[in-house]
């Protein structure tokens, strides 16, 4: 059975980390390596992690330089054939998500797999804020403003070894740069699952204030430049405009 490494990067999320952990532990798929990388929490998060440490494959807690450093460390710790991320304020839509993803990756023999994402209220997970419905990737689709929802993305560990980890020169948009590098530049193979895989509580670092939104836009533009790809301001504008329909949620 293929081993899947699920990585949770967390810092001071004592109120949410337990649901995240249980979301992984409740998955029906049996061969899961669960790794938690804590950035030195001081709010009780570590005590919650210790409560489950006999069911967690590996965990560390130390001060780091931010989310993407922690995610890179998690990849380095991982021994699974496939790597996925579940942040502390996210949880799986149901207990068969990983089972479904692995089945689809084997069936279509692809490097990566992703699906749809629901943004939900931070305090009321039943309240839907945005519905990010993705689609099948075709070459050049990033130029239209498209990108897969990174939290739903599962990638073979070998792809990270071949094409690199998160570029920590990016403080907000390293996930976008990595996906652009993998999909658009390196042409990895992928499969889209047309269902919600992850529910994400709103309040991510890239959307907290107008300054961060401008910074992310700047980093998105930079991502094209560092990969020597022909994209530009028009592409980033379309990327931001493409988010608007996500707010018109179909119940």
Q: Nearest-angstrom radius of gyration?
A: 17 Å
What is the CATH topology classification name?
Spore Coat Polysaccharide Biosynthesis Protein SpsA, Chain A
Q: What would you say the CATH architecture is?
A: Alpha-Beta Complex
Query: What count of structural domains?
Result: 1
Superfamily at the CATH H level? Spore Coat Polysaccharide Biosynthesis Protein SpsA, Chain A
Helix content: 25-40%
What CATH first level would be assigned?
A: Alpha Beta
Q: What are the secondary-structure elements, in order, as H or E?
A: EHEHEHEEHEEEHHEHH
Largest beta sheet, briefly?
9 strands, mixed
Shape: globular
Low-confidence stretches: none
Structure description:
The chain is of the alpha/beta class and 251 residues long. The protein has helices spanning 17-25, 45-51, 67-77, 97-108, 157-163, 174-185, 210-226, 233-241; strands at residues 4-10, 32-38, 58-61, 82-85, 90-92, 112-120, 128-132, 154-156, 190-201. Strands 1, 2, 3, 4, 5, 6, 7, 8 and 9 form a nine-stranded mixed beta sheet that branches. The longest helix is centred in the C-terminal third of the chain and has 17 residues, at 210-226. It is globular. The model has no long low-confidence stretch (mean pLDDT 91).
């Amino acid at each position: 059975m293929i081993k899947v490494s699920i990585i949770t990067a967390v810092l001071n999320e004592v109120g949410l980390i337990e649901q995240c952990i249980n979301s992984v532990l409740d998955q029906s798929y049996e061969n899961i390596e669960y790794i938690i990388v804590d950035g030195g929490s001081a709010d009780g998060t570590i005590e919650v992690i210790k409560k489950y440490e006999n069911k967690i494959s590996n965990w560390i807690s130390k001060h780091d330089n931010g989310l993407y450093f922690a995610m890179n460390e998690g990849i380095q710790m991982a021994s699974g054939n496939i790597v996925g991320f579940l942040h502390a304020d996210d949880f799986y839509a149901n207990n068969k998500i990983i089972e479904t993803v692995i089945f689809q990756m084997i069936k279509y023999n692809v490097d990566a797999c992703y699906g749809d994402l629901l943004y939900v209220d931070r305090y009321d997970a039943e309240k839907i804020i945005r519905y990010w419905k993705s689609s099948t990737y075709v070459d050049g689709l990033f130029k239209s403003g498209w990108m897969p929802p990174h939290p739903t993305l599962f990638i073979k560990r070998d792809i990270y070894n071949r094409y690199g980890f998160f570029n920590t020169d990016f403080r907000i948009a390293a996930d976008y740069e990595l996906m652009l590098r993998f999909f658009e530049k390196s042409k990895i193979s992928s499969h889209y699952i047309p269902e919600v895989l992850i529910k994400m509580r709103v309040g991510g670092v890239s959307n907290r204030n107008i300054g961060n939104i401008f910074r992310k836009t700047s980093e998105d533009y930079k991502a094209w430049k560092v990969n020597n790809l022909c994209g530009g301001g028009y592409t980033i504008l379309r990327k931001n405009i493409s988010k608007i329909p996500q707010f018109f949620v179909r119940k």
